[in-house]
Amino acid sequence: MLARGPSHGVAARRRSVLTPAALLLLFLLAPARCLGQADGDDVVIGTYRQVPSRILGEDRRIIVGLPRGYEDSDLSYPVVVKLHGSPLSFFAPIQAGLELLAESGRIPQVILVGVEQHGHWEVRPRAIGGPPLDVRGEEFLEFVTDELLPFVDENYRTKDLRILMGTYDCALFAVHALIEAPESFDAYLANNLHDYGFRDEPVLDGAPVKLAEGFESPEFLYVTQWHNEDGTADPSVGRFLAELEAAPPANLTWGSLTLEYPAHNTWVPYKDVERGMLSLFDGYRCPQEALDDGLKGVRSHYETWSARFGVSLDIPEMAFNNLSDHLVERHEWEEAIDVLLLFRETYPKSLNAAFRLARAYRGAGDIDNAIESYRAALEFDRCPPFFEEELRRLESSPAFTVERAMLESGLEAGLAEFRTLRSGELGEDAFREGEFNDVGYRFLGKGMAEEAIAVFRMNVELFPASANAYDSLGEAYTADGDTALAIASYSRSLEIEPDNANARETLRRLGESE
Known about the structure:
514 residues, alpha/beta, Rossmann fold, Serine Threonine Protein Phosphatase 5, Tetratricopeptide repeat, 3 domains, nine-stranded mixed beta sheet, 21 helices, elongated
């Protein structure tokens, strides 16, 4: 549930045996095979730091979890502060959950800060409008705003987009922080909210009065609550949510979710975090209509999100992946290369960017740049072995060798190179149908029908049982105006594969019937 208070302003034919989808699958599976880690390497999810605190009278320990790729770029990141987040059993699943959401493009990558908490009393605010209690919520809020946040900003590359996350008693603190220091964070996630009031003075009962004053700039609150084992819920939380719904505060977007018991000692922190973060960033993942509009559409989408938070948000890796794949599927090679060069500039050590850029250059027929892209990727610390395998294939590919010979020295030179390669020591596995098919279509796309026919004839010679090879040859003959040979090629394709609808339809158009 989400509520908002009143605002005060603010074709295709088969052209390649190895499809883009198959290439994407190949790369997505590659990290599971090997990413370069050595036996015995540590798995690092965060770093312990000590924050000097005059307010608390001690150094307070925190854990800082940096997003994947932090050390490989100069990008800055939003900050999520997780109260009572220093126990690894709390920190680790939240860190993993946030990273999964970011890698899917549903939220931006973030810096996670887990704060050590000494006891429940430390974060419990005094009853709003009630008597003073032996608690330190007000002092702890001052520590967070005046000491913790400046420490994080000084030591890490941060964006001015901050999210406060608290569970159980820390959820109550999150509501308190929203009321007392709304300018400190942009969003407040109160997970498994309970009142924890004292002396019959529920803290939450005074919150709606304070919230009713509204906010000068947009704020976000997401509340999750759990039913007790007997099916009941905290009545003060229910009253709090009912009053919010009855009189939504100005400039506050809020949402709530009720979950079933049990609340403790389960994986629920990730569920709470997931719902709150997905509500805050609802619609963040780049939609198909933006991809259809190319780089301009993708930029516009994230500029809209940047304006919403008043901070520049970078295009996520997943959006670059999806846009470049979208362009490659449509064989828009130049546009794909432009996108991928920006991808590589934004994420210099991204294996996704390196892999896709090399493939786009290869699809465009720019084999030299494809080779250079693979060589550059091999300098990465965690480059998987198959990059080197792909580089060797490109450097030794008969199809690309023939293509280069034709482009540099003419058709006859390419034919001679093919004969030399066929009679040499290369094994049959070195000659790949998809590569010759791609080379043929590149020539066809350049209006070089004679060269395309020559390459497709090579493919038919190499793979005489391939319906696709004959189908492609037929298309080249059609483009060259040789109807008789086109009919012969399509007829042979149909003999090999009777279900080839393209060959059947083309023969009908050419005036040939079975």
